[in-house]
Design goal:
- The protein is of the alpha/beta class and about 725 residues long.
- The protein folds into four domains: about 200 residues, P-loop containing nucleotide triphosphate hydrolases (Rossmann fold); about 180 residues, Rossmann fold (3-Layer(aba) Sandwich), CATH 3.40.50; about 100 residues, Orthogonal Bundle (Arc Repressor Mutant, subunit A), CATH 1.10.10; about 200 residues, DNA polymerase, domain 1 (Orthogonal Bundle), CATH 1.10.150.
- It contains 33 helices and 17 strands.
- The longest helix is centred in the last third of the chain and has 22 residues.
- The radius of gyration is 29 Å and the shape is elongated.
- The relative contact order is 0.08.
Length: about 725
Amino acid sequence: MTQIQEILQRYWGYESFRPLQREAMQAVMDRKDSVVILPTGGGKSLCFQAPALVLPGMAVVISPLISLMKDQVDALTANGISAAAIHSMMNAEERRTVDRAIRDGSLKILYVSPERLAQERFRDYLRGANVSFMVVDEAHCISQWGHDFRPEYRQLRGLRDTFPDVHVHAYTATATSHVRNDIVEELSLREPEVLVGSFDRPNLVYRAERRADAFQQIGRVLGRHEGESGIIYCISRKEVDSLCERLNIAGHKAVPYHAGLRDEDRKRNQDAFIRDRADIVVATVAFGMGIDKPDVRFVIHAGMPKSIEHYQQESGRAGRDGLEAECRLLYSGADFMIWKSMLAKQEGETAEIALSKLEDMQRYCTGAACRRKTLLAYFDEHYPKDRCGACDYCLNELDTVEGSVEIVRAILACVDELGSMAGPTYTALVLSGSTEERVLSKGHDNLSTYASLASEGQRAVRDWIEQLVAQGYLEKTGEYNVLSVTALGRGADDSAPSLTKVSGRTRKSTATAVKSMEGVDAGLFEALRTLRRQEAEERRVPPYVVFSDASLMDMARKRPTNTIEFLGVHGVGQKKFRDFGDAFIAVIQRYCDEHGLSTNVTVSASTALELDDEPARKRPSKIDTWRQCEPLFKQGRAIEEVSAIIQRAPSTVAGYLLKYIEENQIADPAPWVHGSIFERVRECAASMETDRMKPVYQALNEEVSYEEIRICMACMRNLG
């Protein structure tokens, strides 16, 4: 895996693996089929992108959406990787450019849609393209048990027949065991390596509450995330348009997204969100798959999703950069009925599966337990802690209702008294003492339980009914969801469950948020965000393609002002340093000078962003490794030679060499750079009166590498 580690460092600026990445990459390198299930933000794409650069030939990635393909290609090319997509929005010249790259063997990663790969003519074309392996992204779409089944994915069944010697790798963020088995069968995978990562997203904070005044409830969330990116999901297009209009009137920068808009309007709105020209996108479920924006700080569901898989994937679009993000779910009994009526149009087993998933979703909404534990249990994963510390239940934002035993008895007794009339809403009307005509005309004001919970309010009673359904004390039956008391409910006495209600308290920050901001200078972070936005606009790419928020926070924590330290920032590879290093270092230096801050701060292992699947203490420290290099540099060993000896990436060793040159006042770059090259760099820098690398690199017609220029300039500084 040494080659892979070097690739990760050189192109992505990562020195280690996230959980299961090593195993997934090894499966590709060993030419085995695989199924890889990693949560959104878990680094799935890297699992096949990095091996594609090592293996001979071109990897083909099957992706469902043009927007996803374009985002991936933009990010790869920004890192200096030869990648392209073929899709219907390309013009003839763009298509010819990609074709030339495929034919001359320079293209390493190609993205295509399942529909295109289903075309026999295109398959014939790929047969002569030296395909190294194939990847089916969003692979859950091939299974009818999946939450987002797409018939066009079934056309991939013939891949194995057309490319019998090409190994296939399936990736998705959300798949139950049933869906995983379906993927293996549909793609005819041969003894695949099945890797299932944890579905836990520790940086996400989950909250759910019954919908009352939705606009006011949404407003409270937005108030905590002023100026930050977020997604609000609605069930219908009409709700999207209405909410978006109200948000803009209130001063928010919001855009709508749903299937009823024209293609060009959807594209314009999506681009505005991705490029930070709009803070909020209000959308139906038509929006989201393939959105690779890592700095989404909140996802609000203004209505209940139709399955936990949908919720896991949609909420998972928050916090892909590993920083804290909020997931707020607003629900009501009406949502259940809306989805149920839609599902009634389906038939047979498909309808039964969908209804079962909807009921699971409702139980999640109304349940009084750790949200994280409930989500993970759905995917057959055990959460080992008693409290997650990052959901409304575990943050004590839900109050236990005093007198729960008496309230439960009253509700169960009322359901028995009403019999076939015990619909959830109607039962709540009776218990709260409603004087509506339909209650009085039926004489239900004479029941023993009438108005027994009048002091609690109808909305609270309605919520408790749903909690009892979720906990198995009541069940709903028939077309109208008539309530009945279960066997568990019959046995409830002093052992009746505790009921909860929203307290109105919301923690401003969790432990995750505090840790992620530790040591970060907020003013410098904002200055770096401003520069990032300018660089992104100039290059016409989304800001996160320049640097992620996690990278900017690491810069604002470490305040690097030289090559070695800047290359040590999370997510900074060689190409990113060449393109942006000078500009960002200049802003950091200026800010630190103005505010009297020290630069090149050493960050402790406990504060640094952990990306490895092993604890940091088990890895040798950078100081230890750097000291191993000193005697080797004194012997005049080349960078590649030192890299092989100490088992670190050449780019890392190059950083150590610069440190060695600086500490030992080395003025002669030999044997690392030839004397003639040193003179060229020296003369060029002197004539241009600059110590910046990019102008020198360009003036020398890109004939001298950035690495050589850096070494030369380090020696020039020692000449005085």
